[in-house]
């Protein structure tokens, strides 16, 4: 290899990693500003009910809608991603996600248009789920299918880093608005600004992704044999076991994330009465531990295997879940920050290696469908119901049992990892 070609390869890798990170960060920013608003703002503005708990449960129900849309998005975008290519599908998913997020920023409230407001909000949230359902798998493939030998997990961690980056951008903006606007202005119009600002970020993501070429592995596979006519049907017929195992393996990361973020934010600011800005600051500090965990997990996965790192992360999560409820329930800032930081650090180990783990379960021409379908179906089990079940557990048994949801999710993920390691 000449020096010129080596430099060209280096710049190609940098463009790929930037595109996978920036695009995923934009998508997760869009997804997380909804989760934050669903905990802080939407209950009162869009879901009038008899009690604050009922409002919060209804708002979390709209949050869960996107998780049920994500497998459908995985099937649709996976179909075209495996037949047409990764690049075009990633661009389309980003536009769908951004369009729905922007529309939420203009949506009238229940006081203005009645029941149409929550209905339209739920439809737009469903659209967000469709977009993100096609995003993650494509971004992961964009990274790992361009990785040099021995670097697949470290390349695969870049789309995973989009999660903490998107969270910091989303909650950081809400924190700025909360501290600079009055309560009346924040509820009247300030909450809309993060949704409207998504348009700028989507433009940035599109600009980066439109400069990409197709991944070398996919191009080579297309040249050797035509793709399956219906990738999802082929997946379910020939690789159902891998799809089920992959689905189980991702349950833990969703449960940890949405209990440590959406649920904890709602519980901390309502039941515990902690100031909104203070709790957002705690979460912004804790999310940095997730980024560190992702980086360490990516490095460790290339030295060992993604399956082993994921298993250790799940083992740690089963123990952390036992302590989560009691530490949150203290109402003291230091124990709350400590358990949030530990939970999100462990999430780095049950989430970071997935970019390398899931694509390896499927052949190249089924990877987009297989990885996306498993990832997003696991999100229903681990993430869609997490805030709802946690809120119900508090009402029924108290906060001490909330962390058991994460412990159970980690046990389910260990089953999936055992299945794939046994098959290998």
UniProtKB/TrEMBL annotation:
Keywords: Cell membrane, Membrane, Transmembrane, Transmembrane helix, Transport. The chain crosses the membrane at residues 21-46, 58-77, 89-107, 113-134, 155-177, 189-208, 240-260, 280-300, 309-328, 334-361, 373-394, 400-419. One of its GO terms (cellular component) is plasma membrane. GO terms for molecular function: transmembrane transporter activity. Residues 16-424 form the Major facilitator superfamily (MFS) profile domain. It comes from the Bacteria. It is found in: Cell membrane. Signal peptide: none annotated. It is a multi-pass membrane protein. This is MFS transporter. It comes from Sphingobium lactosutens DS20.
């Amino acid at each position: 290899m000449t020096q010129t070609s080596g430099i060209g390869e280096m710049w190609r890798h940098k463009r790929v990693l930037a595109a996978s990170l920036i695009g995923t960060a934009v998508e997760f920013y869009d997804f997380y500003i909804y989760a934050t608003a669903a905990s802080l703002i939407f209950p009162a503005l869009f879901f009038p009910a008899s009690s604050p708990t009922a409002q919060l449960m209804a708002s979390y129900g709209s949050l869960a809608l996107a998780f049920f849309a994500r497998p459908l998005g995985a099937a649709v975008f996976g179909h075209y991603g495996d037949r047409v290519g990764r690049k075009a599908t990633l661009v389309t998913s980003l536009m769908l996600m951004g369009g729905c997020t922007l529309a939420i920023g203009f949506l009238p409230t229940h006081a203005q248009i009645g029941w149409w407001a929550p209905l339209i909000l739920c439809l737009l949230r469903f659209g967000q789920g469709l977009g993100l359902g096609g995003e993650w798998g494509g971004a992961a493939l964009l990274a790992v299918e361009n990785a040099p030998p021995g670097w697949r997990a470290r390349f695969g961690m870049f789309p995973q880093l989009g999660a903490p980056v998107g969270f910091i951008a989303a909650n950081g903006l809400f924190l700025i608005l909360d501290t600079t606007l009055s309560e009346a202005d924040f509820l009247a119009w300030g909450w809309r600004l993060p949704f409207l600002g998504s348009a700028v970020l989507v433009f940035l993501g599109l600009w980066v992704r439109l400069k990409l070429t197709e991944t070398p592995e996919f191009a080579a596979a297309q040249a050797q044999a035509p793709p399956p006519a219906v990738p999802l049907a082929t997946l379910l017929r020939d690789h159902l076991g891998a799809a089920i195992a992959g689905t189980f393996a991702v349950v833990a990361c969703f449960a940890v994330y949405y209990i440590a973020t959406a649920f904890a934010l709602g519980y901390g600011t309502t039941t515990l009465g902690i100031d909104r800005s203070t709790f957002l600051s705690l979460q912004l500090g804790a999310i940095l531990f997730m980024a560190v965990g992702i980086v360490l997990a990516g490095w460790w996965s290339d030295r060992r295997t993604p399956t082993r790192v994921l298993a250790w992360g799940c083992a740690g999560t089963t123990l952390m879940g036992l302590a989560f409820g009691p530490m949150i329930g203290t109402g003291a800032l230091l124990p709350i920050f400590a358990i949030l930081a530990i939970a999100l650090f462990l999430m780095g180990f049950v989430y970071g290696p997935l970019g390398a783990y899931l694509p390896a379960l499927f052949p190249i021409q089924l990877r987009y469908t297989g990885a996306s379908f498993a990832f997003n179906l696991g999100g229903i089990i681990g993430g869609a119901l997490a805030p709802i079940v946690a809120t119900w557990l508090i009402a029924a048994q108290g906060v001490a049992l909330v962390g058991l949801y994460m412990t159970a999710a980690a046990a389910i993920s260990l089953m999936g990892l055992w299945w794939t390691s046994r098959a290998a």
